[in-house]
Amino acid sequence: MRELVARRGWELVETYQEAKHYSGRDDRRPELLRMLADAKRRRFDVLAFYSLSRLARSLKLSLFVFEDLATFGVDVVSVTEAIDLTTASGRMMRDMLAVLASFERELIVERTLNGMQEARARGVKFGRPRTKFDLARALELRAEGVSAVEIASQLKVARTTLRRALDEGDAAAGGSPVASPTKKRRRPPVKKNAANRAKGHRLK
Fold first, then answer.
1. Which candidate, 74, 80, 142, 162, has a CA 20 to 30 Å from the CA of 101?
2. What is the pLDDT of residues 2-12, one digit of tens each?
3. How far is CA 73 from CA 15, 36, 43, 47, 67, in A?
4. Paired residues of 4 in beta bridges
5. Is 61 helix (H, G, I), strand (E, B) or coil?
6. What is the residue-wise DSSP string for 82-101?
7. 4 C-beta neighbours (distance < 10 Å), count
């Protein structure tokens, strides 16, 4: 590695070496993340490694790492393999790898969407689970004339969740949504200032 750096006239900026217990398939390896962070900050222009297996053990991870480095403007050189993105042919290979990475992402999205459609057909529901609360008690309180704000406060549920559940209950019952009564706010008495009080005062 150092011979390659000296032969190319490069300056060795940093060395990244993972601990032995980390797998090359792990995309959260500390040294890999540190290297990508340094590449994003443009601490170096070329990443050199002994073999591709030292960088990643899966084709998908290799493509993703190459794409990130290309985005940061960092070239890649392998000591023992015909991978040199500092040359014209190497840059052409980098573009081909970018196309493959994009293709891989589209396949992942397509497989995910197909899987979700099949799961929905089996009755699986996606999204955040709805907040559970006593809907029967909420209907009783509404029938007693309690406002939606007070019902939500008593049952400790968001007003939007309460309103949606009440509307769905009304729709299921075949009726129209019933608005909860709202209390009229009393306007605070207007205090007359000294100037207003003196306006009607007449000097004798």
1. 80
2. 888 888 888 88
3. 19, 12, 11, 11, 10
4. none
5. helix
6. S-BTTSHHHHHHHHHHHHHH
7. 14
**163: which residues sit within 8 A by CB, 6+ positions away?**
148
Q: How far apart are CA 72 and CA 66, in angstroms?
A: 10
In whole angstroms, what is the distance from residue 95 CA to residue 101 CA?
Answer: 10
Task: Count the residues in the chain.
Answer: 204
Q: How far is CA 21 from CA 2, 18, 57, 198, in A?
A: 25, 8, 14, 88
> Would you call 164 helix, strand, or coil by DSSP?
helix
Query: Model confidence over 152-199: pLDDT tens digits?
Result: 888 888 888 888 887 776 666 554 444 444 444 555 555 555 444 444
Q: In whole angstroms, what is the distance from residue 152 CA to residue 155 CA?
A: 5
Low-confidence spans in the chain with pLDDT less than 50: 175-184, 194-204
* Rounded CA separation 35/27 (Å): 12
- Residue 93's region, left for phi above 0, alpha for psi from -120 to 50, else beta, is alpha
Q: Which residues contact 68 (CB under 8 A, 6 or more apart)?
A: 36, 39
pLDDT of residue 197: 46
**Element containing residue 3 per DSSP (H, E):** helix 2-8
What predicted TM-score, i.e. pTM, was given to this entire model? Answer: 0.44
Which pLDDT score, from 0 to 100, does residue 128 have?
Answer: 60
Tokens 């190497």, residue? 90
